[in-house]
Automatic annotation (TrEMBL):
Pfam families: JHBP (PF06585). One of its GO terms (cellular component) is extracellular space. The keyword Iron-sulfur does not apply. GO terms for biological process: circadian rhythm. Belongs to the TO family. The keyword Metal-binding does not apply. This is Circadian clock-controlled protein. Keywords: Biological rhythms, Signal. It comes from Lucilia cuprina. Residues 1-16 form the signal peptide.
Length: 246
């Protein structure tokens, strides 16, 4: 009798797990789908509106804006070289991505993905020091940038772990390389609105936006990879692998 009751209880637990409602932000794929890769790409696209507004039930913050702390840039050389520090950075447009291609991790090989971000807008507070175009340009204000036609190549490795009888994925490492088609940068509310300094700085940023991007790109890519890795793992630790594909 007790064996029967125990078996019935175990069966009910298994059945409850199988019938557990899949969250609306998960679009499931089937293992036997001949276009499984295409389905996974669609699942990522399905996440976009949820990433934009956040998923409170799993404590996943909104990526609009996507927030970062500090970038320090050395833009010109020499003892009076021009330096800029960006703080309280907010990146808009990260949820409006398009998955162009994907390669799954197999046999210990890293996964790969190519993501198109049509437009990224960056707002930040900045401080500067040094000489710019022979003019002392130390000060601070608001920094604005628009990057258009961004293509991000993602590479990373994942592992699995078991918890409460379910298998979960974990992103162990992630790297991002971003190529930007068009760059536009400017500052405002700086130098007590001294017109000469504002115009000189904005002239430099307009003519040398690509140089500024090159100076910030390495740090920006590392910070984006770190923050996106955190977001991915916040999602993955709350969603069993079998919820993604059945």
């Amino acid at each position: 009798m007790w064996k029967f009751v125990l078996c019935l209880a175990v069966f009910q637990v298994i059945l409850a797990q199988q019938n557990k409602e899949i969250p609306e932000y998960i679009k499931q794929c089937r293992r036997d789908d001949p276009e499984l890769l295409k389905c996974f790409m669609g699942s990522l696209e399905h996440l976009k509106p949820y990433l934009a507004r956040g998923i409170p039930e799993i404590e996943l913050p909104s990526v609009e804006p996507f927030k970062m702390n500090t970038l320090a840039l050395q833009l010109t050389d020499g003892p009076q070289g021009y330096k800029i520090t960006l703080k309280n950075m907010e990146v808009f447009g990260a949820s409006n991505f398009q998955v162009k291609s994907m390669k799954l991790s197999e046999n210990g090989e890293p996964f790969e993905a190519k993501i198109l971000l049509p437009k990224l807008k960056i707002e930040a507070k900045y401080t500067s020091s040094g000489v710019l175009l022979i003019i002392p340009a130390s000060g601070g204000g608001d920094f604005h940038a628009v990057f258009e036609g961004c293509v991000a190549d993602l590479t990373g490795k994942v592992s699995t772990n078991e918890k409460n009888g379910a298998t979960y994925l974990h992103v162990d490492s992630l790297s991002i390389v971003i190529n930007v088609d068009k760059v536009n940068m400017m500052i405002s509310n700086a130098f007590n609105n001294n017109r000469i300094l504002l115009e000189a700085t904005n002239l430099f940023l307009r003519d040398n936006g690509r140089i500024v991007l090159d100076a910030m790109q390495s740090q920006l890519q590392k910070k984006l990879a770190m923050e996106f890795g955190k977001l991915a793992n916040q999602l993955l630790k709350n969603v069993p692998r079998d919820w993604f594909y059945v």
